[in-house]
Design the sequence.
């Protein structure tokens, strides 16, 4: 049998947040995992109502009251909580009424944060969608390129048989358009495999991209840096990485330019340890964020931004982000996007491969 000290050590060792409430929803106890989740020590918040720590707890009033009166536990999955600090968490939330003879019922809350699990699931789905879209593209490209080759060859043979320059002009148009379509399909597909990787520094690549975009001379565009200098060099194909990031940064610059006003792009890097991309866990991952304060991406477009030939700009080709996605994927990475007016973030995450991983 455990004594009270043993029970206390178990509660303090749990990674699940444990909160004890009285019938008026005032805090009677929080274990260290709960203190970490709510960002308050128990000594500071003892006795205050839970609503002062979780803004949207009123949504649970009905269920908490029902648990108190009917003495039945309940569980909610992926419940979104807004803390008093403004931070949002997604948790699995279990409430159990604790019945003690001749005492008021108290409520035991168990909160398990699941944001990262949801994120991993979403990333896995994204990778599956990207793989499926790429395979579909390769199939379509194969079916398009074969007849294009036949058309081009036939036009060349026909050109040799024609005596009139005026008629030859028509065959040159056919050949030119066939070449243009083949080039378009090749750009949609991107490279099939990575060339030889060399040791690169991500900040040198970002600085190169920054100088290229600034050299394009867009008025009122500022590109700021927020770099993590601790990120080590890693092995990658620098030309492909430059192309991928350049496409993303240029896309942000064009979005700002479309407003006709001054705007800012922030290039941010961070290192993440023990991070999972798809099904693989990596010791170290670099996170590159391209953040702009442009008009944002329409909600209906968010899920389609990486599809080829999809764009909401009249002058856009719809290929830049699709190519960036292919190149990042070749490096074993992931690219995703979130957007709201004046704040769009393209987030690239790639494993920091060492020479031993080559």
Sequence:
């Amino acid at each position: 049998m455990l004594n009270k000290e043993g029970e206390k050590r178990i509660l303090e060792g749990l990674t699940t947040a444990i909160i004890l409430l009285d019938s008026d929803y005032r805090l009677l106890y929080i274990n260290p995992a709960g203190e970490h989740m709510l960002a308050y020590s128990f000594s500071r918040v003892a006795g205050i109502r839970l609503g002062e720590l979780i803004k949207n707890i009123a949504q649970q009033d009905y269920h908490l009251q029902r648990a108190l009166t009917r003495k039945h536990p309940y569980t909610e999955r992926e419940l979104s909580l807004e803390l008093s600090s403004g931070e949002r968490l997604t948790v699995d939330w279990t409430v159990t009424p604790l019945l003690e003879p001749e005492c008021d019922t108290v409520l035991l809350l168990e909160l398990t944060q699941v944001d990262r699990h949801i994120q991993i699931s979403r990333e896995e789905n994204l990778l599956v969608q990207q793989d499926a879209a790429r395979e579909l593209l390769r199939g379509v490209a194969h079916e398009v390129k074969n007849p294009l080759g036949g058309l081009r060859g036939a036009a060349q043979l026909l050109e040799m048989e024609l005596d009139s320059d005026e008629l030859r002009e028509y065959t040159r148009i056919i050949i030119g358009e066939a070449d243009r379509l083949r080039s378009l399909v090749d750009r949609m597909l991107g490279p099939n495999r990575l060339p030889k990787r060399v040791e690169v520094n991500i900040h040198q690549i970002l600085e190169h991209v920054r100088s290229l975009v600034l050299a394009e001379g867009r008025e009122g565009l500022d590109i700021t840096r927020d770099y993590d200098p601790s990120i080590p060099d890693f092995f990658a194909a620098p030309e492909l990485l430059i192309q991928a990031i350049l496409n993303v940064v240029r896309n942000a610059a064009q979005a700002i330019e479309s407003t006709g006003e001054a705007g800012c792009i922030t290039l941010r890097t961070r290192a993440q340890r023990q991070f999972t991309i798809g099904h693989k866990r990596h010791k170290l991952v670099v996170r590159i964020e391209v953040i702009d304060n442009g008009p944002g991406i329409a909600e209906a477009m968010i899920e389609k931004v990486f599809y080829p030939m999809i764009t909401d700009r009249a002058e856009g080709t719809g290929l830049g982000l699709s190519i960036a996605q292919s190149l990042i994927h070749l490096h074993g990475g992931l690219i995703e996007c979130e957007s709201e007016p004046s704040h769009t973030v393209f987030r690239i995450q790639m494993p920091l491969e060492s020479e031993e991983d080559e």
In short: DSSP finds ten helices and twelve strands in the chain. Residues 103 and 189 are 69 Å apart (CA to CA).
